[in-house]
Amino acid sequence: MPTVNRREFLKRSAVATGALATAPMLIRIPPSPGEQPVTRITRTLGRTGMKIPIVSMGVMRADNPALVRAALKAGIVYLDTAHGYQKGKNEEMLGELLKEYPRDSFIISTKVPPEESQEAFLEKLDISLKRLRMDHVDILYLHGPSSREATLDPVMLGTLQEAKKSGKTRFVGVSTHKNEPEVILAAAESKVHDVVLASINFKQDHADQMKEAIAKAAEAGIGIVAMKTMAGGFFDRDKAKPVNCRAALKWVLQNPNVTTAIPGMTTFDQLADNAAVNQDLAFTEEERKALVQGEAQGGLYCNACERCVPGCSKNLPIPELMRAYMYAYGYGSPALGRELVTINGLQPNPCADCRTCTADCVKGFDLKERIADVSRLAAVPEEFLA
Predict the structure, then answer these.
(1) Using an 8 Å Cβ cutoff, are 176 and 146 in contact?
(2) DSSP 264
């Protein structure tokens, strides 16, 4: 079977609005009094057996419980958070809100980063459950591995199994921002992970490898959840060129092996746009054009391919800094950007004494300029960005 490059795949995906590879399952959610019945598209999350609308909610940057309540009313049932989001306040907000809802009326996941011991990991999970006011989550992710070795770490695999055995989570998985195909395949190999949460979007240069890895994982019973679907949300620092987010979300969900996506939402307009995709995956003509045009633009999304790193004389963690740049300028969240900058020990303008940048970006990013720009966040007091 001939291979299809990413540009050609974009064109074919955009045109094939009426012929998805498999017909998605449909579910009818009872309307509120006075409302018309709504048919939403759902898919089954791998071997978990959970049927979920194809658009869910990433709660990471949301701090308004009314927005989450509106999402639930709009038929979104899966909410994603993490132990570290908003320094725990994100889980606390969800816990306060969700106490009003029957536990079987929503699905919730949280994420805990790798720890040196099982005890340390489970202690953080217990803190998360206390914040959420729950005795269990539906999905527990190991947060952020970017290699096969980290995904298959025997200590963390045993810890996830222990969390599942103790009833603190129904299912376990792994989330990843880079080297996604490698992590996805490792998760399928582990025989432990039930779900993978991965960056998937139309700006990834490794789209063919992603599609192949996702297909193999899905065949092994792994449920696939997509994040970073909007590829940064904008093509430029000044936010003059927005990504057509509905088109970007639909592009990801054309792959029937992707069960659901968790776009981050902070406004009611974003919620309305995203929730509408649960009812209709067909592209409009405008969306088709936006995808093809957007594929040719630089943007804010970094593939985290790490090809730039060997050329950096200071061995800076450039992919992490590009992600911080995307958070600060694409997401409009300098606090998230600052967190990544400080975690990586960056000082303001570390490239100041470099006459010429020797690190080469396959996307054509001006790395020296972007690093100088985002590294300024290291000098901003944390409370100014809260």
Answers:
(1) yes
(2) B
Contact in structure between 41 and 76 (CB atoms under 8 Å): no
Quick: pLDDT tens for 155-175: 999 999 999 999 999 999 999
**Torsion sign, CA atoms 366, 369, 375, 376:** negative
List the beta bridge partners of residue 57: 79
| 295, 10 contact by CB (below 8 A) | yes
Question: 6-294 has which CATH code?
Answer: 3.20.20.100
**Do residues 319 and 304 lie in contact, with contact meaning Cβ atoms separated by under 8 Å?**
yes
As a whole number of Å, the end-to-end CA separation of the chain is 52
Domain with CATH 3.20.20.100 in the chain: 6-294
pLDDT digits over 97-154, tens only?
A: 999 999 999 999 999 999 999 999 999 999 999 999 999 999 999 999 999 999 999 9
Give the global pTM. Answer: 0.89
Looking only at the bridges linking them, the beta strands covering 38-44 and 195-199 are unpaired
